[in-house]
Amino acid sequence: MPTEQLDDSLRVIALEVADDLAELARVRAWADRLLQDLPEDQRVDALMVVDELASNALRHGSPPRQVRLLRRPNWLSVEVDDTCIDPACPQPPSAEGGHGLKLVAGMSVSWGQSQRPTGKTVWAEIDLTRPR
């Protein structure tokens, strides 16, 4: 699990994710350990964002995949890479499933995706000072 300190306040932790839905349990446990210092409501929200983005990458993306947590004292960014070039798309309200990105949008101050020639990164930013 590589950790990178980019400046005095930014910490980046990455986890490579195998091509297996069972990896979601490992991703959840990894993120839960790293976010133990957050108040319970913030930790639960952040874990839901991690879970939704990772599960979308496993269900709809292509390997290899990586999950990253970028932390500053009052801010968290969750980034998930995969090699599928298709964009992540929220489902219409009439769809029976596929509403995870709406959940991500509600729990984050912003979310989006960055396309690369070899795939995409879907990300969400969480303001840790914002009341729930």
User: Which segments are poorly predicted (pLDDT under 50) over 5 or more consecutive residues?
Assistant: none
Distance between the termini: 30 Å
Oligomeric form: single chain
Helix percent band: 25-40%
Major sheet, described briefly? Answer: 6 strands, antiparallel
Can you say what the CATH homologous superfamily is? Histidine kinase-like ATPase, C-terminal domain
By DSSP (H or I, 4+ residues per run), the number of helices equals 3
Structural class: alpha+beta
- Work out the count of structural domains: 1
CATH-defined fold name: Heat Shock Protein 90
Architecture per CATH nomenclature, i.e. the level-2 architecture:
2-Layer Sandwich
Q: What is the CATH level 1 assignment?
A: Alpha Beta
SSE arrangement, N to C: EEHHEEHEE
What gyration radius follows from the Cα positions, in whole Å? 14 Å
Give the number of DSSP strands.
Answer: 6
The order of strands across the largest sheet is 1-2-3-4-6-5
Beta-strand portion reads 25-35%
Q: Would you tell me the overall average pLDDT?
A: 88
Walk me through what this model shows.
This protein is of the alpha+beta class. It has a single domain (3-127), classed as 2-Layer Sandwich (Heat Shock Protein 90). 31% of the residues lie in helices and 32% in strands. It is built from 3 helices and 6 strands, in the order E-E-H-H-E-E-H-E-E. Strands 1-2-3-4-6-5 form a 6-stranded antiparallel β-sheet. A hairpin with a 5-residue loop joins strand 1 (3-5) and strand 2. The protein is globular, with a radius of gyration of 14 Å. The model has no long low-confidence stretch (mean pLDDT 88).
